[in-house]
Amino acid sequence: GAGVSQSPSNKVTEKGKDVELRCDPISGHTALYWYRQSLGQGLEFLIYFQGNSAPDKSGLPSDRFSAERTGGSVSTLTIQRTQQEDSAVYLCASSTTTGTDTQYFGPGTRLTVL
Amino acid sequence: AQSVSQHNHHVILSEAASLELGCNYSYGGTVNLFWYVQYPGQHLQLLLKYFSGDPLVKGIKGFEAEFIKSKFSFNLRKPSVQWSDTAEYFCAVNEHNNDMRFGAGTRLTVKP
Question: Closest to A99 (Cβ–Cβ): which among B32, B103, B105?
Fold first, then answer.
């Protein structure tokens, strides 16, 4: 079956612009996670959703970052007024439930802020 | 907040050598532990996981990991590595609050 998909695969933007990243989780997966992978920094947890709600927003680096999920499926991560330090690969993962279940990762969106 | 430490940033081995990658976490409560692997050009995928029971967990491709609660560790091992094991390995910890924390990753290079 289809895995987690993300779009776009690559995004180049100018400093100060807003960007929107999309994640399509595996059908039926109620939990959805966003991570940021920077060179040499490992995976940084950003936010997770259980259904449409986000119980834990503590990982968002600043108020320029926001995320939403509608219909318990697609999620979008929005970065406003992008900065060069936002350049990274943004990964989405989904799982059937939270906590103990295996997370299935998408291919990521590589964001480059010039 | 919990943290996950992977002490080895880059490990270089020859084929058939034994592998052990360290992972330590800071949280003292009940945790679920994972190792994920990212092969070059591929998605992150699960290698193995521990929730409860036997602290020695066996995963795919001959990998295993041992949970030592007293040491807050979950080290990954393989008796004999292959060139195809070249990848980046991430330890992750979930503390039952639905949040997953990853370590910084260890890059493994296996020389043929």
Answer: B32
